[in-house]
Design a protein that fits this description.
Elements: E1 3-5, E2 13-15, H1 16-31, H2 35-43, E3 45-50, E4 57-62, E5 69-71, E6 75-79, H3 93-100, E7 107-111, H4 112-132
Antiparallel strand pairs: 1-2, 3-4, 4-5, 6-7
């Protein structure tokens, strides 16, 4: 396993996994400010109504899967085609960046429950692919 040395006061060695996690996290942080993400949210805006949990007025968005209306804290902007294809896995950084910063046609708003269900299905495909390749 190769390591990377950083040039700080204390020399720290990073494994390839740690380095990849750092780069992935940094890129996903940039996606939080990606304009097409906000276009998709705007299109899914249902309007204002009382949040049943807080009792306050807030914006609600329509889930693309179950069609329910949810407050902003309960929705996610999801990639329809996952950034990392669960059947193939990580290919290279060019593919990762291209799929992360995709057109808005590959983005959808999902409630937390539907997003969790979709993520679980993708994880099952990834795990089945990993097991069959061993």
């Amino acid at each position: 396993m190769s390591t990377r040395k950083t040039s700080t006061k204390k020399s720290v060695e990073w494994t390839e996994g740690r380095f990849r996690a750092f780069i992935t996290s940094t890129l996903r942080g940039g996606f939080r400010r990606y304009p097409p993400k906000y276009e998709v949210l705007k299109e899914a805006l249902w309007g204002k109504k009382v949040n049943s949990k807080s009792g306050r007025m807030c914006l609600h968005y329509t889930c693309n899967e179950c069609k329910g209306q949810y407050p902003a804290k309960e929705v996610n902007v999801d990639h329809i085609l996952p950034v990392v294809d669960p059947a193939i896995g990580f290919k290279n950084w060019d593919v990762f960046v291209k799929r992360l910063f995709c057109d808005k046609e590959n983005l959808q708003v999902l409630c937390s429950k539907c997003h969790t269900k979709k993520t679980k299905q993708e994880r099952e495909v990834r795990n089945a692919t990993t097991r069959s390749s061993k």
